[in-house]
Give the backbone structure.
Amino acid sequence: MQVFQNLLSKIKPHFEEGGKLEKFYYGYDAIETFLFVPGHSTHKGEAHIKDGIDLKRTMFTVVIAMIPCLLFGMWNVGHQYYLAAGEFTALGDGFVEKMIHGAIKVLPIVIVSYGVGLNIEFAFAIFRKHPVNEGFLVTGMLIPLVMPPTVPLWMVGLATAFAVLIGKEAFGGTGMNILNVALTARVFIFFAYPTYISGDTVWIADGVTGATPLGVGYLDGLAGLQANPNYTIENMVLGFIPGSIGETSLIAIGLGALILIATGIGSWKIMLSVLAGAFATATTLFLFDITPFAGVPPYYHIFMGSMLFAAVFMATDPVTATQTEMGKWIYGFLIGVFGIIIRVLNPAYPEGWMLAILLMNVFAPTIDHMIIQSNIKRRMSRALK
Amino acid sequence: MSTETAVKAAASAEPKEPLFSKKNRKLITDPFNDNNPITVQVLGVCSALAVTTQMKPAFVMTLSVIFVISFSNLIISLIRNTIPSRIRMIVQITVIALLVTMVDQVLKAFVYDVSRELSVYIGLIITNCIVMGRLEAFAMGNKPMPSLLDGIGNGIGYGAILLVVAFFRELFGAGTLFGVQIIPQFMYDLGYENNGIMLTSAAAMFIIGVLIWVQRSFNEKLVDVS
């Protein structure tokens, strides 16, 4: 660290006022505050801060919460590959080989996502003369986790650029975006290059194809799921199934959820209400028997596809979710309802969470507005009585 | 422009104002940037979304709109003092409909395939807000020659945006421009794919949005207009 500090203090004068590289001050600032505790402090006698939690620490907590998903995703990519190739079919076998294969597939996606996104963020920070915000730390990790392992890297780069430019910077940068940035990136690939992100051919690797449990359940119902020895309910919970990199293991996602809830960064109300909305809708559809998932019990919907990942990491994004406490329940519940409706009843879209969350992102400010207005009205009538 | 003679005739009636005086030049250049019908007035967006998947229909649409808007401006301006104000909308619509029908018939006769591609959108020029908007805002209160120039200017301003949007949509959505393959085959062999989002009208919305963004960050006059 001393090396970095020396280097930074050596080049600092160039970036300060009057220096040669004054224009790039905020680029320098970002690197300095990333490596070291910032030298800024609050003014004496004005602030009453109990905890110095800032955006950077919030974002890092979320990144840490995603690490289990990433590591498990890497292993699972390798596991699915070797399973299809007929080698190391037992779970415990070939751990190192599976990790290496997964890392070769997953790490480039992570690097491209961070590389493209951070460059755009730095460019805008320098151009608009504001410090670089840390929002992209989370987005850059979320994007790889919602991609299938076989997605071409240039598509990841393009989608990231689109999401950061149109989804975020056009609205004014971190904290101002209406739509979840990581989902904007995914929805871009979903509509621009649909065959590369969903369907039967993308989940495993290198010419090996296979449908996810969700796809099998949609086409063949419970019988189809039971016909595949790999798609047992235990495997779905533990995550030994094909799917997007981070979405498969409910255990890893659950660990992330615990970290988010324990630190108070993710809202448990949203997570719970998404599950409740989804379960209620799935049960209703199951009871009235209007679902193509023939005979698949409603609780399977929580184990298949990306439902839990979406509920824990996507729906709880503090920028795009509702802010009022009551609003969180409504917002989450409606995500659950719409997610299942899109997944089950719309044949054009195999999975619903991305579109459901983006839809509710748009409505979140309206929900908040209604709640605040009704609060005002209630208190007003009480006061005037 | 083929309308040169008409312009000259109108100009000779106004001896004091030279043909391309500063004011008249402004009528043509203003709609191109400072007062662009699409990016500043935000009119005519629906047709900009609908006909811009390819360059060819966008180009034909541009020519048609320039024709309709300039001549309807001219005609309405010529008869503006005789139109009873209570029925002026009906008169305007009749004039526009006449011109649009002419365009439609000409397209059907000479470029039938393009006419089929554009389908209802030629007919819908009648309801294009830019045409009505210019009639109400300009031609009803100005002399014929400036009205004609204003019509040409707005038509070009509209068409320019249309062509820019169509350029990006056709190039990235289909890899072609005016139906000619631009992106070479070896790119596809390397794994390049046409972008399906460009074929949806959402892409036109993004592109117009980005154009507005870029325009406003360079043109200080437009900041805080709305």
In short: Residues 135 and 143 of chain B are 12 Å apart (CA to CA). Residues 1-14 of chain B have pLDDT under 50 and may be disordered.
